Amino acid sequence: MVYTRKNVSALTGAERRRFVTAMLEVKRRGEYDEFVRRHIDHYVSDGEGGLRTAHMAPSFLPWHRCFLLDLEQALQRVDPGVSVPYWDWTRDRAPASAPWTKDLLGGNGRSSDRQVMTGPFAYAAGKWTIKEAVTDGEFLMREFGRPRRPIQLPTREELNAALADPLYDKAPFDSTTRSGFRNRLEGWGHGTGNATWENHNRVHRWVGGHMLGGASVNDPVFWLHHAFVDLQWSRWQKKHRGARYLPERPPGPSDPQHRRVVARHEKMPPWGVTPASMEDHSRIYRYV
User: Fold this and answer.
1) Which CATH number fits domain 3-287: 1.20.1250.20, 1.10.1280.10, 2.170.150.20, 1.10.287.1080?
2) 233-265 pLDDT per residue, tens
């Protein structure tokens, strides 16, 4: 049966409570930290050798679609009626708006140490201890807008610029690619200040704290952010009928990206599914 993913600002009080309860139970069972470890393990950059699947590569979108589905399945083992809502950061831009309310994800970190003090995921609430991270510390951290070097959330116009690109991706299929929907959305920019980070990447930077780097899954907003990113892939497909994931074929032996990126019909670790098989989610979920 096809289920729905809703805008987080449209969730009812009961839906908010069910989502939070399911998230906390997945954490209590120890499953949540496995998601954190998986993301850290697959956070491979251009400068490293070997295959890149989760970031700085064409498979950024199908990889995170699989990742979201795994988390959603874990939530639904707790409560079959729960799905991951999405956060439209082009509209809900205020630190006091959804999803930053006390009954959802809680708010910003305090200025002294960036510790989140409100909501069910605050360390003081006793149910969200950070166990898998690249730094020490057991409490969830955020630093909205990076006050010392201010940064703004992406605008609707910036997102629309990515959606307007008719090509999915383009060689060299990494963070230096200057055109193509994938990198315009993933957001490896080429300017200074805010332009260094675009769309998806700039949201991670704006939230700050644990949302920086491979351990970003520690902040539950990771999933709401990526649900919105996933929605943009769907919108791009509708806008550019017939456009497909690229590259269609693996880069050849003389190409610097040989065996470093996943082609459309190649298996994508750790699931062993192809990007092509992830292009259509209509039989699993829909967005409202």
Assistant:
1) 1.10.1280.10
2) 999 999 999 999 999 999 999 999 999 999 999
